[in-house]
């Protein structure tokens, strides 16, 4: 995926059955790209999605790992479809009742926005980072005064046109656009 592994994200399996499963997945995109590779004979466009867990090392947890629920989608066609995955993100957020806001909309307490990104898995200039501004929580001071905390903008995912070198590694000859984001932040909000 053209992403360097810093060595502190992926969970390694002690006794893997095969070499392919030495680490627990930290992204859903490789699995979707393998599925596209195995279904190359199908007519274009090929559209896939997955909603599943990924696992990360987390030394603050008892088991030293943390699960996150991610949503991912890939669009493969004769032309790249950045606007397709961007529209899919917009639709998913509308279904989650998360409004789209601008990066500079500091008066908006909650929402999502995208900013041009530089993830090496994507084609330069055709990638974006997805940010989520969570609603401010209420904090209680020592005098039992309730004051709103500051909203925080956090990165929840990426989208864009996949880099040709990534597609070549999966033996895919057509351009693909992809989207992956963490839905865990929305699950916590509803519970």
Task: Map the helices and strands.
Layout: H1 29-38, E1 46-57, E2 65-76, H2 82-95, E3 111-116, E4 122-133, E5 138-140, E6 146-148, E7 153-162, H3 164-169, E8 176-182, H4 184-190
Antiparallel strand pairs: 1-2, 2-8, 3-4, 4-7, 5-6, 7-8
Task: Outline the structure in words.
The protein has about 190 residues and is of the alpha+beta class. The chain contains four helices and eight strands, in the order H-E-E-H-E-E-E-E-E-H-E-H. The protein has helices at about 30-40, 80-95, 165-170, 185-190, and strands at about 45-55, 65-75, 110-115, 120-135, 140, 145-150, 155-160, 175-180. It has a six-stranded antiparallel beta sheet with strand order 1-2-8-7-4-3. A two-stranded antiparallel sheet has the order 5-6. The longest helix is centred in the middle third of the chain and has 14 residues, at about 80-95. It is globular and about 65 Å long. The two termini are about 35 Å apart. GO terms for molecular function: phenylalanine-tRNA ligase activity. This is Phenylalanyl tRNA synthetase beta chain core domain-containing protein.
């Amino acid at each position: 995926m053209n992403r360097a592994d810093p060595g502190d994200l992926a969970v390694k399996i002690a006794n893997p059955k095969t070499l392919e499963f030495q680490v627990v997945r930290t992204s859903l995109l490789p699995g979707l790209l393998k599925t596209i590779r195995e279904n190359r004979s199908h007519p274009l466009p090929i559209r896939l999605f997955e909603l599943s867990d990924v696992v990360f090392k987390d030394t603050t947890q008892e088991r030293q790992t943390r699960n996150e629920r991610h949503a991912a989608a890939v669009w493969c066609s004769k032309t790249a479809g950045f606007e397709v995955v961007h529209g899919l993100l917009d639709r998913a957020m509308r279904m989650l009742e998360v409004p789209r806001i601008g990066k500079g909309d500091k008066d908006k307490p909650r929402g999502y926005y995208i900013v041009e990104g530089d993830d090496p898995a994507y084609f330069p200039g055709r990638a974006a980072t997805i940010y989520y501004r969570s609603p401010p929580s209420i904090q209680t001071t020592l005098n039992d005064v309730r004051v709103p905390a500051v909203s925080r903008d956090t990165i929840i995912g990426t989208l864009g046109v996949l880099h040709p070198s990534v597609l070549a590694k999966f033996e895919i000859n057509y351009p693909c656009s992809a989207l992956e984001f963490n839905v865990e932040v929305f699950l916590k909000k509803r519970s």
